[in-house]
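Suppose you are handed only these lines of text.
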Amino acid sequence: MNPWSCHEWSCPPVPTMVTPEELQYLHWLGSVEWDGESDAVEFAPWLGATTIALASGMVSNPRRKSGLLHTFDNFVWRPFMEPRSKIQRPNGSDFSDLLRANLGSLASSVVMHRVELPKGEHRISRYPLTGDEPLSSANPFDWEPPVPIGIIFIDGAKSYDAMRLVLSRLVPHLAPGGAWLACQDYADPFAYWVPLLMQLNSERWSAAHVLSANTVTFRSVSPVPQGTPRLPAIEDLSSEEGISLLETAADALRARGNPSSARMVQLGICIFLADKGDRGRAIKYLRSLCWRFPLVSRNSRVLREVSEAIERCLEVRVYPRPLRLIRECPGATIRWSRKVRSMLR
Ligand SMILES: C[S@@+](CC[C@H](N)C(=O)[O-])C[C@H]1O[C@@H](n2cnc3c(N)ncnc32)[C@H](O)[C@@H]1O
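From them, the structure of the protein bound to S-adenosylmethionine can be written out as follows.
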């Protein structure tokens, strides 16, 4: 059993986009693994569930001497946030007041920063841009950490360039004795740049905690390697390099007993290839993955989302419809095949 699973903490009722396990884990990370002196950094808090989990963990850490949680968001309300929170706000409005209110007494341990990370120009996105987003130059992320960073929680690097920027600015400031980099989108195929750029710099850290869904946390090596991290522009990364990095990341997850997250990283290869404009290989890769997915799997919904996104982008049908129907209604499929069999008898 993972040590965070038996960690005692009850989460306050704040709307969240992460799983209960991830909240439990962040609290455990702050209260047990944090060194008690370094600062922590979070991208991005939304309404504060992950912020509260991490900050209240840090506050309860018996080693705590100093250290703040710096949390970064553009605080721009988007329509997709409404069904997840049951809160109605105008599109584009500022929601930092909601975070402040939810933090309550933890506000003295949390510093809120308004920044706009690069949105990138991706052919495929889970939340396509609507055109009314604020200019990316409004509050660029050029923050200089005042003290070394012991924890980075990344749940807001929603583009390849955002992940590049976050790593390029923060990696030089990681605590020399070792730091935790918790990547929430690690197993989200629509955020393939997270496993890709982490794998590209694998000499700097090693996977420490693999959660059952989404989050993978790395521990940076000590002493910190010389030189800057390798963060090429996506144009400078070949399809072969990207496939190889993501396949290696998927293999590592499989070796850590998480084949489901490994398949998510492999689905990310399809989106990476489509993003690169490598149409032929994107289709071929997705076709083969459709068959390699288990017939009954909780990831079927993501396979459908990725297929639909790629089919829309490349204007081609990839996911065989019968296979998709079987996956989406396994109960009905089993009942239907029994009925046919009994009729044939
Ligand atoms: C998935 S939500 C974070 C969920 C949150 N950690 C929780 O507890 O559920 C992503 C967050 O990233 C922020 N965000 C999205 N794009 C951004 C950008 N370009 N710059 C800064 N923040 C951004 C959103 O406002 C949102 O709060």
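What can we learn from it? Strands lie at 39-43, 69-73, 110-114, 149-154, 180-183, 205-210, 216-220. The chain has two domains: 20-231, 235-333.
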